[in-house]
Structures are given as C-alpha cells and as structure tokens.
Design brief:
seven-stranded parallel beta sheet; 15 strands; Rossmann fold
C-alpha cells in the first residue's frame, strides 16, 4: 500500500519523499484511515515504527491553513521529544510548501517570548503539559478552535503527576475534538485514564514482536566498579558510528562522560548538559557524527528519534523488561540493524533470563579481548560490528 492509496495528498507524499520516506509502516497503514475519519484512537507500536508520522499526516490533511487559530495541541513528556515533534511539523510544512505554522511551548525558556509568538496564531503547538496548561489558563493560548489533541508517550503522561495537566488541556478544548494517544508500551494506569477520557477510542496495534528483530542482544559480565573501564574498552573494540549509553543517575552520566573524554572518545552527556543550547548542541553533534557516544538516562532519551544509532549500551542495568525494550529501541530503526550490549554484575545476570522470557529474545554472552568483542565461551568472532567507523576517533 502507498501513501497516496491512504488518501495522503500529493504535496505531502512529495514532502515525505524528500525525507526518503516512500512506503507507509504498519502502524501508519492502520492509523491513517481511522484518524482521517476524525475518530479517537490509541496508537500502540514498537519504537522506530513511525508513530509520529502516523498521527501527523492525518492531522496535516485535516488542517485548515486559512484559519488563523490553533487547531492542534501535542503534549510530550520531555523537552527533547517535543523539539523532535515540532521539527517534524516544520519539515512537513516546508517540504510540502504549506503555510502551516507550529510553535514549541516548553518550560525552561522565556514565557514572554512564547506569549509573543502565540500572537502569530500557530496552527499547531507542541510542548510540555505544564507549560501548555499554564498558557491556556492565562488566556494566552486559545483552545476554542482545537480539532485534535495528541498525548504522545501516553504511558508517561497519563499518570498521577501529569494527568491533571492533561485533563485541564482537554477540558479547555471543544467537545467533539479528536483525542490521539501514542505509545510503545501499555500501562494499567494509563489504560484506565484513556478509557475515561475517550470511551469510544479505537485501539490500533501493529507489530507482532515487542522487540525489533534486527537487534542483536549481547551481555558482558564484570564487577560493578569495573563498568566504566569496561565501557571504555568495549567502545574501543566496537568503534560504533553512533552509540547511546544508558545510566540511571545524572552524576554517573557526568563522571562516565568525563572519563571517556579523557581517553579521547568523542562523547556528550545529554542529561548533564542542563542548558537548553548545550543539549541541542549535543544532539546535533551526535546526529552529524561529530561525536560518536551519547550518554543519557531513560528520561532524557524517552521518545527521541536519533537516526543512525548503531549500538545501545546499558551501563546501568534496567530491572524491568519494558525499560530494556525502550532503551534498545533506539537502535535498528527504520529497517537498519543494530547491537545492544548490557554490562552486568554476577548478581545482575539473572535478568538475562527475564528479558529472554518476557521479550522473546536471545542474549549472547561476550567478552572484550585485545580490542575485539568475542563470544565468552570461545575464540570465535561475532559478526562484525554494525556499520563500523573506518577512521580512528
């Protein structure tokens, strides 16, 4: 099936082609007819399957560019995800040649400037629930013409901490507007909230396997205190084009980034760079391969679509299988291949069986030997690293 057959207009089809997107994914095929009909829907699909475009394309199709009013509100749990969504809105509009305006509304930036930009009456606003609710409450963001409200990363937003803000946003919009929910995983708490907010929601699920089959899952056993040094050796052995390293705590990210930088490994700490401009610079440097390693927490990386990630490394081990799923989903996106390597202590190895059982994957134990990653049980080499960098760092 093609985008044209899904009733996506020729300008948008051409816009997608400029981004090398020519065939719809399974979740897009499922979502477009439902969302174009204006129905409430919940999009549930694994990471990297195009959920953002699955709701943006029908939203763009239904927008009235001549109406000088905000028609779409998109809420996201992190600033990075909101920035990513808004960038996609800008790219679609520009590549299609459509005069559709979008505006980013997140905390940590000048509210005065945001209020001034709202005077341009953007068609789409994207941001954090708290800032969006605040601006609606002040009467600066007019919600009377809103046609669609999107709750992205639903399992993160429909929880006790942020649910009041989401309810306030929805209540400020006209009755009959469309509600769209999107997430890679499902939680009982968010499912209950969806049932209350949208009793007639259409459940759209795509993808039989919870984990991308193009990901090779590896684990390496070492002492906890040895993990930073083992990470350094692992990165030197793999020479990844782009690797994301996951940790639990901010201070761990900062210390590990400093250690890797000391050994001339091009690295940035996404979570530790608290300044908005520094965070943007870290993402841009990673995308352009000026740096090859990005250290982040689950919160910092949630929902980010950083293209070309060849490797994911779990320095701190996720105790829940769903957390592992989210992390490794940063690699092998859009049909590419990738490797996920988890550094485990002897006590943490028990989690291997849990991941395998609950996620339906197979994990292989490896070790680093003389700048090579080899099977733990023998000298046989694993497959060559995915898209290795030929030049030295």
């Amino acid at each position: 099936m093609t985008f044209a057959e899904l009733d996506v207009g020729p300008e948008l089809v051409a816009a997608l082609a400029k981004q090398q997107i020519t065939e719809p994914t399974a979740i897009q095929i499922a979502a477009l007819p439902v969302l174009l009909a204006g129905k409430d829907a919940y999009l549930n699909a694994e990471t990297g399957t195009g959920k953002t475009l699955a709701y943006l394309l029908p939203i763009f199709c239904r927008l009235d560019a001549k109406q000088e009013a905000t028609q779409v509100v998109i809420a996201a749990p992190t600033h990075e995800l909101a920035i990513q969504i808004q960038r996609q809105c800008c790219d679609l509009a520009q590549n299609a040649g459509w005069p559709i305006r979008s505006l980013l509304l997140i905390g940590g930036t000048s509210m005065v400037r945001q209020i001034d930009k709202l005077k341009t009456r953007p068609h789409i606003v994207v941001g954090s629930p708290g800032r969006i609710r605040e601006l609606i409450g002040m009467g600066k963001l007019k919600a009377h013409a809103v046609r669609s409200v999107v709750i992205d990363e639903t399992d993160r937003l429909l929880v006790a901490e942020s649910l009041p803000a989401i309810r306030a946003i929805i209540q400020a919009t006209p009755r009959g507007r469309q509600l769209i929910f999107a997430s890679a995983t499902e939680q009982p708490e968010s499912a209950e909230a969806i049932a209350t907010l949208a009793p007639e929601v259409v459940m759209l699920r795509a993808g039989a396997a919870p984990v991308n089959e193009n990901i090779e899952h590896l684990y390496l056993v070492c002492e906890g205190r040895e993990k930073p040094e083992m990470l350094r050796k692992l990165l030197h052995a793999l020479r990844p084009e782009r690797a994301m390293v996951f940790v639990h705590r901010n201070e761990t990210a900062e210390k590990v980034a400093a250690k890797l930088a000391h050994h001339q490994i091009p690295v940035a700490d996404l979570h530790g760079a608290s300044d908005k401009r520094d965070r943007k610079q870290a993402r841009d440097d990673f995308r352009s391969a000026r740096i090859h390693v990005l250290i982040a927490s689950d919160v910092a990386a949630r929902g980010l679509d950083l293209k070309g990630v060849t490797h994911v490394v779990n320095l701190d081990v996720p105790t829940r299988s769903k957390a592992y799923l989210h992390r490794v989903g940063r690699t092998a996106r859009a049909g590419a291949k990738g490797q996920a390597v988890t550094l485990m202590t002897g006590d943490e190895v028990r989690l291997v069986r849990r991941y395998e059982r609950e996620l339906g994957i197979v994990m292989h134990q490896v070790r680093v030997c003389e700048d090579r990653v080899i099977a733990a049980e023998g000298p046989a080499r694993l497959d060559q690293p995915v898209r290795p960098v030929t030049k030295r760092w």
